[in-house]
Amino acid sequence: MSDKKKHRGRIQAQGDGLEASENWSQDEPLSAQDGLKLLEKLRSKIPEKEAKTREKEFEKAADLIRRAGENGGIDAKFSQTFKTKGTNHVRVDIEILGGRAFVTLRLIVFVLIWLLN
User: Fold this and answer.
1) Does residue 2 sit within a domain?
2) Residue 27 lies in a domain
3) Fewer CB within 10 Å: C terminus or N terminus of the chain?
4) Is residue 35, in this structure, part of any structural domain at all?
5) Phi and psi angles of residue 11, each rounded to the nearest 5 degrees, phi first
6) What range does the domain containing 76 cover?
7) pLDDT in tens, 55-75
8) Count of domains observed in the chain
9) pLDDT tier for residue 1 given thresholds of 50, 70 and 90
């Protein structure tokens, strides 16, 4: 039996020698609120210069997470790259590798009630 959790993914900051990520792997869908926390955790753990270079890309990623939360979340497999203009590889990536992510608390409660019945 596999220990692989149903809902999995990662948020990454890459390029120009940087490779940093925040992952999730859990039984319930990742909430939009927790997705925003992971994004901020990633932003705060990379060097400030790298974060500033990707400032607009972090904003676009946060906007995607918020919009997804307003619309019921995003199903796997999903991948979105926010590339820094004028560069070849500097970017912020969001990948949903399994399950669903960026849902609102309301949907999580519904799923939990459904699972308990």
Assistant:
1) no
2) yes
3) N
4) yes
5) -120, 130
6) 7-116
7) 999 999 999 999 999 899 999
8) 1
9) very low
